[in-house]
Specification:
alpha/beta
Length: 160
């Protein structure tokens, strides 16, 4: 699983750790969560430090990797291995990172609000292109389902 967003409070990375804690309990022990992003300033760096502390407190640090400021080639390498992506910002205006993850063939779950709901995942009229959720349980259920059924023909169509 991956997340791809700047380390800013409104991106709600804390919720992502809770999602991973819940979902990973139902996944193989070698499953990993890669949190990719950048920081802008000292406040973002403090948030990143708190996120790392929270991963330890939740006892998931061994399966979570924070990847900060990676070059494009490394981001694309991680994208090529990812099966599912999450984006948790409430009322995201558009969500270009959601589109980037989807265009890389990653089955994506985004917050059921704003641009993801109206324009990207929920706004697509031709069928399912991803999933929407609001709470930890909903995200975790989608993550678990996608990871367990990743190779089903339905998800194969989402990856194209």
């Amino acid at each position: 699983m991956i997340s791809f967003a700047q380390f800013r409070p409104e991106k709600d990375h804390m919720k992502q750790l809770e999602i991973w804690k819940k979902a990973s309990a139902n996944l193989p022990p070698d499953a990993k969560f890669y949190i990719l992003g950048t920081t802008r300033d000292a406040a973002d760096e403090k948030l990143l430090a708190r996120l790392k502390e929270r991963a330890f407190a939740l006892n998931i640090a061994q399966s979570v990797e924070f990847k900060v400021g990676l070059p494009y080639s490394e981001v694309m390498e991680i994208f090529s291995r990812a099966k599912v992506a999450i984006h948790t910002m409430k009322l995201e205006h558009f969500g270009i990172s959601i589109v980037e993850m989807m265009s890389a063939g990653i089955v994506t779950i985004a917050h059921n609000s704003g641009g993801p709901k109206l324009d990207i995942i929920g706004g697509f009229k031709e069928g399912v292109v991803g999933y929407l959720a609001t709470e930890v349980d909903g995200y975790a259920e989608h993550v678990t389902y996608i990871m367990k059924h990743y190779y089903d023909s339905f998800h194969d169509n989402l990856r194209r």
